[in-house]
What we know:
It catalyses: cholesterol(in) = cholesterol(out). The chain crosses the membrane at residues 249-274, 335-357, 596-617, 629-653, 665-688, 700-725, 776-796, 1038-1058, 1065-1084, 1096-1115, 1136-1155, 1167-1194. It is a multi-pass membrane protein. Keywords: Disulfide bond, Glycoprotein, Lipid transport, Membrane, Signal, Transmembrane, Transmembrane helix, Transport. The strands form twelve sheets. Strands 14, 19, 20, 21 and 22 form a five-stranded antiparallel β-sheet that branches. Strands 29-30-23-31 form a four-stranded antiparallel β-sheet, sandwiched between helices. Strands 5-6-9 form a three-stranded mixed β-sheet. By secondary structure, it is of the alpha+beta class. 49% of the residues lie in helices and 12% in strands. Helix 22 (596-614) runs parallel beside helix 25 and helix 25 (659-672) runs antiparallel to helix 42 (1122-1150). It has 44 helices and 31 strands.
Amino acid sequence: VVGECVMNTECGVDPLTGLEAPCANFVPAKPLTNETSIKLLQQLCSKAFNTDAGSPVCCSDHQLSSLGSQLNGPLALMLRRCPSCFNNLASVFCMMTCSPDQSSFIQVLNTTLISQGKNMVTEINYYMTNAFSEGLFDNCENVQMPAGNIRAIVVLCGSWGENCSPRRWLEYMGTHDPSPFQINFQFYEGPVHVGNNTYLPMDTPVIPCSQPVSPGGEACSCVDCPTSCDSPTFPQPPAEWDVWGIPGMWVVMSFIFIAAVINITICFIARILLQKKPEDSENLLNSDESISEEDAVFLSHEDVKNPLEKIGAHIESKLEAFFTHLGTLCASYPILILFCGVVLVMVSSCGLIFFTVTSDPVELWSDKQSQARKERDYFNSHFGPFYRTEQVIITKVGGRPFHYTTPKNETLTFGPVFDKQFLHEVLSLQHSITSLMARSGGKNIHLENICFSPMDNGKCTIMSPLNWFQNNDTNLDFEKEGYNYLDHIHSCVQNPLAVADSLPLGLPCLGDFGGPVYPYVALGGFKGQDFSNATALTITMMVNNHKNDADNRDAMAWEKLYVEFMKNYSNPNMTISFSSERSIQDELDRESQSDIVTILISYLIMFAYVSIALGRFRRCKHLLVDSKVTLGFSGVLIVLLSVTSSLGIFSYAGVPATLLIIEVIPFLVLAVGVDNIFIFVQAYHLFVGALSTMPAVHIFALYAGLSLLIDFLLQITCFVALLALDTRRVEAHRFDIVCCGKANKPDLLDNHGNSWLFIVFEKYYAPFLMKTPVRATLLTIFVGWLCSSIAVLNQIDIGLDQKLSMPEDSYVLSYFEALEKYLSVGAPVYFVMKGGYNYSDYQQQNLICASSGCSQYSLLTQISNAASSPSQTYIAHPATSWIDDYFGWAANPSCCHVFPDHQYCPVDKATSEHCVSCDIVDLKDRRIFPSDFVAFLPNFLSENPVTICPKGGHAAYASGVELYDNDARIGATYFMTYHTILKTSQDFTKALKWARDISSNITDVLRTNGTDKKATVFPYSVFYVFYEQYLTMWRDTISNLAITISAVFVVTLLLLYLDIHSSLIIVLTITMIIVNLMGMMYWWNISLNGVSLVNLVMAVGISVEFCAHITKAFGNSVKKTRTLRAQDALSRMGSSVLSGITLTKFGGIVVLGFAKSQIFRVFYFRMYLGIVLIGASHGLIFLPILLSIAGPALKRSRLGVPKMASLSDDSARTITNLPDYTIQ
Length: 1224
């Protein structure tokens, strides 16, 4: 009945909730007379019904006051940031409590007799339209709780949590507890007839969240109400280019290959046809001057008329004269040269007393001057380093999902890890871990001594599903009214912030450390939001970290004990993966010891090869004289001394070494060797690798470059001296190794002929390769190889899989695999606002906050917008917001209090000390007065969240807001959220790029729309320092290779008579080698990163050896045609390239394939093997074919070079094979 009430005035206190419940009174509505009550009614209920003075209502002054207290309590803290949402919800209870038409939609079902004539309401029906309930829900469902990174509706919906709906929300709020009486919400669209009564469902107009509650007010923010702003749009990544469903590059290179095949076919067919005219064929295709070999040797440099060619010949002659003089000097005074060499090496190697090795991953892979490193240092200096993390991931062996029927007859499915006995076993393991006691500095170290305790209550932050039971076996076994641990788990995964689980159990979901345990952190292996179906659970312990390593000694001591314990722990029901903060560094250190045997074997193999290769065994009776074991050992020793000298020199300079330097550089120097002047090029290329900003790569390049340079200097001095001494030994017929022994005088040296390999090249391989059909076929194959490699260049993975950095038997590998398989949330990301920002100014606040009145382009709004497209931006949730929670805390009278002298009054003393509300909020703008903003901020940050005021900021924000000058000035602050799941290097790199793009846009908005033109926001996450390099990896690769190949061109130009044509051919061949090597990287799953980049740069230098000798021999040949000159060059130098360059490297590289280090096998064995095989194939197959077709014409200057074409005599063979006496 319109104008009639069915309940009013207070009847008594409900024993379950402690709240007052009304009396059942069927009386007419009447107006309020108290001015304060009238103002409060108008403030709370003006949008629900007529609240003008004198208008009748169904509530008393006391009821209205209680309503105001309840609405201004937790509901206000959660929802008031969105005015229309809060107002619509207030209308629900205003109508129920005070509406003059109460009897038209409220039906009292049950009462309890309190005293004579007083019946307290215990149950009612509340009739409401579906349209209102849905409108109410739609306008509130996106309101955020900044401290928890979740929506407020999740908390307000009780156990329904993320599965909340309009009906479920209202049904939960109407449940007897939290409500003082049972409210049964009934949803209808028209009149409801019950017996003789007709009810009209409440249908107060719903105010959309995109509109202000009152004229001149503010609508809800974009974060809380997406319809308040335009939907955010983000640039879409460029679609992969394809043609007919095939990658575009494949199609393009296929057409290029077809065109090349047609051209090759036409050219060689024309050649075959022209060969029918002997008088024209060679001249037409080769255009060489047909100068006889007999006449060639009588020409000199003075006969050359080309100035460039003449200068080149002069340079060549000077270099030859210099090295001839140097060689003569070293051979003439070998003892003096060796003495000087030994002294210099000893002085250099003494620097090893200052030798240090770094295995810190940050120091290894992040440049100190990089943006990410600077931002990391800024974060650490203002907020402290990110926590040290100790984590265990557990699955159940042979477990299967199971079904559970709740007391409400609902059937739920739980994953196997929720088996009760299994949870007890996990809790036992957790207790064993947390009770570990280590020793450090003469004292006992427990976890609570080093852990992060956000409430400063001595309780460690442990993210574990057992912490929903406060890590207590009794709570896990507790049952009441048919409810058990599964009901509690289901409630907590829906609402991890619940102080109690809204079940008869009444257990809290908060961990014993006072904070929430989010299911996406504590559980794994589930799909979507179906947390109950998890197949894995985690135990994550957060330990305080410090900038100074010495301050982390206690933590590292405990972590060491923890790792030892976990390695020895076993449970037949569990599959366990684990890691600690120190695990990666420990495994890197262990890796350095794992391949010592492999390294020793490789040296023995190289030593044996060098010894055999250097020897010239004529007959068995001269074996001990012809042996070169001593010389070979000396060559290997020179390599080792060059490495120790390099280490010593850089140790003097204070440059720390890395494990890769110790393990790889001896291989590199031994494999590369110094067989000719082109070693200068290789040393230069490795120094080019020092341009890399990745410290491990930069230092490796410096050490390797210096080692090769020293090795070269020792080779051309000390090794020549050793060779001279060895020659004297042979001439004196003394035995190798045992020099005191002497053989009988042998017969005169006979011409024992050419080696079998030389004969194979001269008589069989070279003539066969120069056949026209063979050249055409092989050229086609090489062109196809090149095209196929170019087609896949853009598909090479960029990055370094962290699993490759670990030994193959490392426990960390199983942990990485478990992370990828079960991980359900990514790393935290902090958006850091640098110090100096004026947070007291309203305009500046609006560019940061995310509540009502804040800019739609504010910092928090932009992060929230990014979180709305997580698959693209890699931002999983809106960010936590200390400033919005500070607003809510200051505005709520239950939170902020002062003593009578206006000094701050802590929440726990507010009642006993008769404190009053702070009154520091401007009611018009709902902002803290500028004069009070900084003054009360330390108080907000010192309060722990409690039931009466869950907005206390100590647990969530104390470490995220920096205060200066005795808390009088705000410094740097951060706003935290999470990345989505990141599994591959591409994921990590893209996440970094998106975070930087978002931060850059925020910074632009702050500077454009605010008063602080220096405002700066940057993102920080622990992995950024490792993945920043990959943002520019292709640019770095192209620039480094371009510089290196340009250097090759310049050096070869100087050393080849300034022959541009020959230099271009060498550069072309090397470029093909590099491109095909990168193609191999794609097919053999080798990613592009700093390590592989240095290998590519080094490959350029090594490739010079495969190309330069044959190209130079081609230029020196005086045969009549290009084909004959190419055949001649291949005959003379092919065997040397194969045996002296290819096989030398091959022997040292093959051993790497047996290394335990995965980085060795992938980035060194695979890539070095590719360098040798691809380089040899191009040098011994493609290059001679290319020279036979497009080689340079015979230069007159080269006709003055002594002929080395007829290697049938022993003297010529000796000249040619001189390089084989050096260490290859």
